[in-house]
Amino acid sequence: LDTLSRRCFQGDTDRGQRQLCRVLSSASKPKWRLLFFGTDHFAVESLKLLTSCRGTSEGIVETLEVVTLAGDVPVKRFAQENHLPLHSWPPDDVNGRFDVGVVVSFGCLLPERLISKFPYGILNVHPSLLPRWRGPAPIFHTILHGDSVTGVSIIQIRPHRFDVGPILNQQFYQVPENCTADELGGTLATMGAHLLINTLMSLSERMENQREQGQTGATFAPKIKMSMSWIVWEEQTCDQIDRLYRAVGSRIPLRTMWMGRTIKLLDFAGKCHVSLSDQRRNPIPGSVSFQKESNTLAVCCKDGWVGFRSVLLNKRLTAADFYNGYLHQTRQKNTPCETAEGQFFSKKGGIEVHQMRKNSKL
Predict the structure, then answer these.
(1) Which of 210, 212, 284, 297 has the highest CB neighbour count under 10 A?
(2) Full 3-state SS string of 64-90
(3) How far is CA 175 from the centre of its chain?
C-alpha cells in the first residue's frame, strides 16, 4: 500500500484520516499485511478466520504474523500448528512490513511508537457495546450485572488507555436467559471474528464514518478476582447469586464459611422452595436445609433459598454426603452451637457475626 497513505495516517490529523480513506477507497479488494496480537481462546476465533482468509484470490489477508505472550497460551499453539510466524512481545521488527494490526484479548497497552508503525492503525475486537464495560473482563460483568443486551465492538487502538478509541463497527446481541460467561464468550468470539472480517473488507468506509466514544454509559469491567466468589448471604438475593455463579462459577467456585472452615459450593441448582417443618422457625440468611427429594443443600439468602448439589470440604461431597456426614450428625446434639452447625456464614464477619447473633438470643 502506497507511501501517501502511510504519511496521511502518521500525521494523525482529521485531514490526514480523510485523505487516507480516499486512498483506501480506490482499492476494490484490499489485501492486508496483518500483524495479530492475542493470547486466549477468545482471540483464537479471530485468528482462525483471518488464517482462512490468507493467500486466496477472494481473501483479504496477504500475509499474517502473530505476537503473543510467554507461556503455553492458545494463540501461540494455534500459530505453531498453522505455521504462522511468531513474534515475542514487544515485537521489534515491524517497520514497513505491515499495513494494519489486530488486537484481541491481549492485555498489554500498545505504545504510540508501535501504533504509528502501522499505516492503517491497529484494530481491537472487544466483546461489549463500548463504552459499556471497558476493561479486561467485559463478558463476566455482562452476566454478573444481568445485562439483557451486549455485543461486539471494533475500535481503533489509541495509546496509553484501554478501550477508548473510536468505534468503527458494532453488532448487538441479545443475551440468552440463564446464559453463562463461557457460553456468551463462545458466541461473542465467533461474532467478533466475522465482524472483524467485515470491518477489514470495508475499512475505508468504516474509517471515514468512525465515531468517538462518549462518556455517557461508560462502565469499567475489572478483572475477576477470587474475593468476588465469597457469598454474602445477608446481602445477596437469589438472582444475584445465580448471576454470580453463571459469571464466575466455572473458573472460581463460590465460597462460604462453615464452622470456621471454607466450603466451596458446586453444582448450583437455582432458586429453591423450602417448606420448614417448624412453622415457628424464622430462618436467617445462611441457614442450611437438606432437600432429600432433589438431593440439594438449600441455603437461605436475602430474599429466599438457593440450592447446591455438591460441596468441596477436603474432598467433593454430594449434598446427601455432606448432610449425613456433617449436618445430620451435629443436629442430633442439643447444644447451644446448633445454629452455627446448621448455618453457612459470610466471610466478612465470620465468627464475629455468629457470636453477635448468638448473644442476641441469650
Answers:
(1) 297
(2) EEEEECCCCCHHHHHHHHCCCCEEECC
(3) 14
Q: Is the pLDDT of residue 224 over 80?
A: yes
> What pLDDT, in 10s, does the model give residues 16-55?
444 444 444 444 568 999 999 999 999 999 999 999 998 7
Neighbouring CB atoms inside 10 A of 240's CB total: 19
For 74-78, 192-196, 309-313, 331-335, which range has the lowest pLDDT when averaged over its residues?
Answer: 331-335
Paired with 167 in beta bridges are 155, 211
Q: 265, 325, 349, 335: which is closest to 299 by C-alpha?
A: 265
Is-contact 98 121, C-beta < 8 A?
A: no
Angstrom distances, CA of residue 274 to CA of 73, 254, 330: 45, 21, 21
**3-state SS string for the chain:** CCHHHHHHHHHCCHHHHHHHHHHHHCCCCCCEEEEEEECCHHHHHHHHHHHHCECCCCCCEEEEEEEECCCCCHHHHHHHHCCCCEEECCCCCCCCCCCEEEEECCCCCCCHHHHCCCCCCEEEEECCCCCCCECCCHHHHHHHCCCCEEEEEEEECCCCCCCCCCEEEEEEEECCCCCCHHHHHHHHHHHHHHHHHHHHHCHHHHHHCCECCCCCCCCECCCCCHHHHECCCCCCCHHHHHHHHHHHCCCCCEEEEECCEEEEEEEEEEEECCCCCCCCCCCCCCEEEEECCCCEEEEECCCCEEEEEEEEECEEEEHHHHHHHHHHHHHCCCCCCHHHHCECECCCCHHHHHHHHHHHHC
- Residue type for position 357: R
Alpha-carbon distances of 359 from 63, 87, 336, 338, rounded to whole Å: 72, 64, 11, 14
- What pTM value is reported for the model? 0.84
If you count them, how many residues does the chain have?
362
CA 142 to CA 126: how far, in whole Å? 13
Q: What does the block give as the cell for 174?
A: 441479545
